[in-house]
Design a protein that fits this description.
single chain; 170 residues; mainly alpha; 3-stranded antiparallel β-sheet; flat
Length: 170
Amino acid sequence: LLLVTRIAPLLEKELKEKELYPLFRDTEMPLVAVLADMEAEGIKLDTAFLEKLSGELRVRLDGLMERIHALAGGTFNINSPLQLREVLFEKLQLPVYKKTKTGPSTDEEVLTKLADKHEIVAYLLEYRQLSKLKSTYVDALPGLVDPATGRVHTLFKQTGTETGRLSSAN
């Protein structure tokens, strides 16, 4: 508390110099109480819907995997950058746009550039998008529900991003 009382005037001065004090006073500070209430109240999830959606995504991902394997001419681990490199750049002879320490990059930026070069790339991009959605949200969120309240109690971070968006943890 002593440190806060010593540093607060310095931070206030800096906010005023940068003409950010009204934003801090009128928006950010009132939002603290709202976010605290939201954290305490929690967020109700429709876990039955998420379970159903997870199954639907699994079916869609399996279909995409089959299509990707057919276009690649054989099975491989789609989530392995090494195996994906072999398919895209050795087997299918697609152009290399960027290299990493371990070889040609298969990141989203590269795949987007390759999208018009071969049909497989659009399926790979969709597979990655749906896979991330499924693992990060659809499958993970139900495990974060507090059994006592039946809700997810996250911690909102007002300063977690530089773009003015909220981020959350837990």
